[in-house]
Design goal:
The protein has 451 residues and is of the alpha/beta class. The protein is built from 15 helices and 22 strands. The chain is globular, with a radius of gyration of 23 Å.
Length: 451
């Protein structure tokens, strides 16, 4: 079959690119082996945040005493599971998304794709050819570590956790990054005894140390055990429980095991060697126009720029404009935002203090605690958090906003880092009172006069 463009992977970015190119009049083949829409709407950002919203309501209900009266909160997982199944269109059915895509004029091809030659893709024996090029948007899958005994056990990935119809009595979360921390806190708040096992020396190892400490203290207060710096030697399952043997510490046992140790892209299975790319690489290298090779574009997780829906959509816009011959503002990655939706919430953008120092920058930092701000004092229960700013050469190069609605406060900091607004100019801005984002003003003042 002949097309102008073949788009591999119908996650948010791939679906957006395929739909827009088809609407522009191109003949587009949209290839997907699983569900149209990808990870985000079915097992990722949307359902997980629905779970988090429910868990946060339980926590807020427990914060009523001492501020607004008395409260008794009893968790019930049933409405959470039901709401997720409804959002996933009747137990993970993608017909609505598929109809949306084909309604824009794209030709949906279901099956496993492999690139077999320049401009050629084979899907379960069917050969597709592209005259303009191929867009690789095949995303990623859970990376399962090669721990002795793990393979063959009924461990959970994030898919199993999202699809859970009941809360286990106990749960080990292997991996204390964003996904592991978020889901661990959810299941804890719904009654599971949760232990988070992280190989690095702290939770959320990609974030500022202050953020790791903040979330670890919150977990401790909620009864979540954190085993950081714990290398797992072996996993066993006796039919009813998992046991993790950990170096330099006691074993950990629980009814369920959630493996949350990152994600990976399988470039070898995709056959990128046929277009001259390295199949052993962790990701596909692209230029500012998202070009990976002649007639080949890549976007989303496979580019290694962050496994975020907002990244894939950002890159998809560049790909579409480049293919259509429209003006393109080349990709920039100095101000990539991310949010970990734990409670407290952690939002960050740009460089951490450590990254900035490793880059050889003349770094200045400042930090303001949310409880010390007027809004934080008013908020009282559940008000833990901080704003940390990292500056060099008079501009912000990184920032972290942790606490209530930390991700929302991050928006102004993302703009400041992205636009390279001088710190001095930011100190001249008017900040609404009393808001959480007003803590940014206090931090800027410290940054201008402090260390």
């Amino acid at each position: 079959m002949e097309f102008d463009v073949i788009v591999l992977g119908m996650g948010p970015g791939g679906e957006d690119a395929a739909g827009r190119l088809a609407e522009a009049g191109l003949r587009v083949a949209a290839v997907e082996a699983n569900l149209v829409g990808g990870e985000c709407p079915y097992w990722g950002c949307i359902p997980s945040k629905m779970m988090i919203r429910a868990a946060d309501l339980l926590a807020e209900g427990g914060r009523v005493p001492g501020m607004a009266g008395d409260s008794t909160v009893s968790p019930d997982w049933a409405p959470v599971a039901q709401r997720i199944r409804k959002e996933a269109t009747d137990d993970w059915n993608d017909q609505v998304a598929a109809d949306r895509l084909t309604g824009k004029g794209a030709h949906l091809v279901r099956g496993k794709a492999r690139i077999t030659a320049p401009g050629e893709v084979t899907v379960d024996g069917q050969v597709l050819r592209a005259h303009r090029g191929i867009v690789i948007a095949t995303g990623s899958e859970p990376a399962v570590p090669p721990i002795e005994g793990l393979k063959g056990t009924p461990y959970w990935t994030n898919h199993h956790a999202i699809e859970a119809e009941a809360v286990p009595g106990s749960l080990i979360v292997l991996g204390g990054g964003a996904i592991g921390a978020e889901l661990g806190q959810v299941f804890s708040r719904f009654g599971a005894a949760v232990t988070v096992v992280e190989g690095a020396d702290r939770l959320l190892p990609l974030e500022e140390p202050e953020a790791s400490e903040l979330v670890a203290k919150a977990f401790e207060a909620e009864g979540i055990e954190v085993r950081a710096g714990a290398a797992v030697r072996r996993v066993s399952h006796d039919g009813s429980a998992f046991t993790l043997e950990v170096e330099d510490g006691p074993a950990v046992s629980a009814e369920r095991l959630l493996v949350s140790t990152g994600r990976r892209s399988d470039l070898r299975a995709l056959g990128v060697g046929a277009i001259g790319l390295d199949e052993s690489a962790r990701s596909i290298e692209t230029d500012g126009r998202m070009r990976a090779a002649e007639g080949v574009w890549a976007l989303g997780d496979v580019t290694g720029r962050g496994a975020f829906t907002h990244m894939s959509m950002y890159q998809a816009n560049i790909v579409v404009r480049d293919i259509l011959g429209e003006p393109v503002h080349e990709a920039e990655y100095h101000a990539v935002p991310r949010v970990t939706f734990t409670d407290p919430e952690v939002g960050s953008v740009g460089l951490s203090e450590a990254q900035a120092r490793q880059s050889g920058l003349d770094v200045r930092t400042a930090l303001t605690r949310i409880p010390d701000s007027p809004r934080g004092w008013i908020h009282k229960a559940g008000n833990e958090g901080f704003v940390k700013l990292v500056a060099a050469d008079g501009v912000l190069v990184g920032a972290t906003s942790a606490g209530p609605v930390g991700g929302e406060v991050l928006s102004m900091l993302t703009l400041a880092v992205h636009a390279k607004i001088p710190v001095r100019r930011l100190t001249e801005m008017i900040y609404a009172y009393p808001t959480f984002h007003r803590a940014v003003e206090s931090t800027l003042k410290e940054l201008s006069t402090g260390r």
